[in-house]
Structures are given as structure tokens and as C-alpha cells.
Automatic annotation (TrEMBL):
Protein family per UniProt: Belongs to the G-protein coupled receptor 1 family.
A GO CC term attached to the entry: plasma membrane
Pfam families: 7tm_4
PANTHER family: OLFACTORY RECEPTOR (PTHR26450:SF104), OLFACTORY RECEPTOR 56B1-RELATED (PTHR26450)
Protein's name according to its UniProt entry: Olfactory receptor
Compartment list: Cell membrane; Membrane
Entry-linked InterPro entries: GPCR_Rhodpsn, GPCR_Rhodpsn_7TM, Olfact_rcpt, OR51/52/56-like
Species per Swiss-Prot/TrEMBL record: Muntiacus muntjak
Length: 314
């Protein structure tokens, strides 16, 4: 008990970790992460601005893209306070309430991203299989219902986590593995029985990430079936090109997640900084690359960005 810090409320205080075994390089890591933050925040902010201002982009696909950009901004701002404190100001203590609040928002936006990618795959399937009925099938009311479903499901999956943690006794050296608070990291610190926490965590993963990825794969099977029914090779390629941006977004979200999970399970003998860097890639790469990919692959967004950069009147 002597190594545990408690605040005035009797709850533990946690110690954040920067880059274990690479402490002398943390200022360079701060510069790198600062660049990623700037690209992510500016890029996603521009996507939201362009979709709002460009009348031709007031379509279901771009509404979903706006939700993805808004979600990526949420991920960036959720990690920003403790990343700045750890890498810039070397302040590594964080209270229990602040830690679980950050944990809530990080996992909330991660689950939301998975849900948004799922509804975007449904959007692409409708656009390809029923192009003439696309706007009628995805009316604004249905888009709003999908928004609410994604938000509600994510909230319900994350809301119990702080309360489950708060009921447990902490009697270890409460040192976290990252510069931010994650549930898999926090759940190893209590001394009490964490069976309920593990069961609920597994249920959350299975009913969100696993189910979403399976449904996304299924939607692409249906998309490929629709594409193969098109006689012209040029039309098939043009139709498949409609899915490239979304497919890239799916890959840069799920591939790092799978790598992090596999490393945590089978790479226990790897240096600690490897786990930290992989976790950083999982949290930082999708918010940074999503606006870049959609800006490059979407003609309307690319054209509007060009006009903005050229300073022409629009």
C-alpha cells in the first residue's frame, strides 16, 4: 500500500508513462505527435467546413463523412491534454476521475468510429446496388436515425466502465503503460475481482468491433456481387473506385487494432516501447489519414480545397 497515491477523495492517483526505454527521445516524439495532431485537427476541420459550405456535398455519403471527421476530432482532443502534459510539461500524475473520464471518451469515440465505418459500408452498398433509389432510400431522417444508433450504442457500451472500475480497490503501484488512460491498462491495476469487468469488456468488443468488421466484410461481398454483374469492365472499375476511400479508412482503423491486440497477446517479450508505439499508431494514424485520403480521392472535396488554396472567390 505504501507505493499507492491517493487524493483527498480516497481514490487513487495514476502515473502516466511516456515512451519507456526511450525517455531521451521523448521531445522528438512530442514534435512528431504535435505534427500529427495539427494534421488531424486541421484536416478534419476542413472536411467539416467544406461539407457544410458546398451544396453539392449535401448527400448521405458526405453526411457520414462529416460524422467520421467529427469523431476523429473527438479522438484527437480526448488524448491531447495528457499527451501535452506528459511529453511537453513532464506532468505525469492524473487523478482517478480525470483518468476514467479520458478513458470513457477515448473508448466512446473508438466504438463510434467502428459504427460509422459500418454505416458507411451500408451507404456504399446502397449507392452501388440501387443508384437510382439512393437518395430516396437514405433520406435525411434515416441518416439521423443511423447517427443516433451509432452514438447510443457506443455510449451504452462505455458508460458502465467507470462505475465498474470505481467499485474496485486499488492497492498496487498505479503506473499506466501509456500517456493516456485505456480500460485494458486500468483493469490490471485493481486488487479485487475483475471477472465482471472482463466479461463486460469481452461483450463490448464482440458486439461492436467484431460484429461491425464481420458486417463490413459481408457488405463488401454484396458490393462485389453487384459489381461483377456489370457488363462493362470500365464501369466495374469506376464503380469499385467509389469504395476505395472507405476501404482505406476501414483498413487503417482495423489493421492497427488487430496488430495491437496480437502484440499484446503474443508479443509479451517485446520491448515495452513497441507496445506503446503500436498503441500510438492505432489512436493517431486513422484521424490523420482519413481526411487526407478523402481529400485526395473525392473530386468535389479536392476541387473545393484547390479553390481555397488558390484564394479564388466561391
Amino acid at each position: 500500500m505504501g507505493g499507492v497515491l491517493y487524493n483527498s477523495s480516497g481514490l487513487p492517483t495514476f502515473t502516466l508513462t511516456g515512451l519507456p526505454e526511450l525517455e531521451n527521445s521523448q521531445h522528438w516524439m512530442f514534435l512528431l505527435l504535435g505534427t500529427l495532431y495539427i494534421v488531424s485537427i486541421v484536416g478534419n476541420g476542413l472536411i467539416l467546413f467544406i461539407v457544410k459550405e458546398e451544396q453539392s456535398l449535401h448527400q448521405p455519403m458526405y453526411y457520414f463523412l462529416s460524422l467520421l471527421s467529427l469523431n476523429d476530432l473527438g479522438v484527437s482532443f480526448s488524448t491531447l491534454p495528457t499527451m501535452l502534459a506528459t511529453f511537453c510539461f513532464y506532468l505525469r500524475k492524473i487523478s482517478f476521475d480525470s483518468c476514467v473520464a479520458q478513458m470513457f471518451f477515448i473508448h466512446f469515440f473508438s466504438l463510434m468510429e467502428s459504427g460509422v465505418l459500418l454505416v458507411m459500408s451500408f451507404d456504399r452498398y446502397v449507392a452501388i446496388s440501387n443508384p437510382l433509389r439512393y437518395t430516396s432510400m437514405l433520406r435525411i431522417s434515416r441518416v439521423v436515425c443511423m447517427y443516433l444508433w451509432v452514438i447510443t450504442r457506443s455510449f451504452c457500451m462505455v458508460f458502465p466502465l467507470p462505475f465498474l472500475l470505481k467499485r474496485l480497490p486499488f492497492c498496487k503501484a498505479n503506473v499506466l503503460s501509456h500517456a493516456y488512460c485505456l480500460h485494458p491498462d486500468l483493469i490490471h491495476l485493481p486488487c479485487g475481482d475483475i471477472t465482471i469487468d472482463n466479461i463486460f469488456g469481452l461483450f463490448s468488443v464482440m458486439s461492436t468491433f467484431v460484429l461491425d468488421s464481420a458486417l463490413i466484410i459481408f457488405s463488401y461481398v454484396l458490393i462485389l456481387r453487384s459489381v461483377l454483374a456489370i457488363a462493362s469492365r470500365e464501369e466495374r472499375l469506376k464503380t469499385l473506385n467509389m469504395c476505395v476511400s472507405h476501404l482505406c479508412a476501414v483498413l487503417i482503423f482495423y489493421v492497427p487494432m488487430v496488430v495491437v491486440s496480437m502484440t499484446a497477446r503474443y508479443g509479451r517479450h517485446a520491448p515495452r516501447f513497441v507496445h506503446t508505439v503500436l498503441s500510438l499508431i492505432y489512436l493517431f494514424v486513422p484521424p490523420m489519414l482519413n481526411p487526407v485520403i478523402y481529400s485526395i480521392k473525392t473530386k468535389e472535396i479536392r476541387r473545393r480545397l484547390g479553390r481555397m488554396l488558390m484564394g479564388t472567390k466561391f
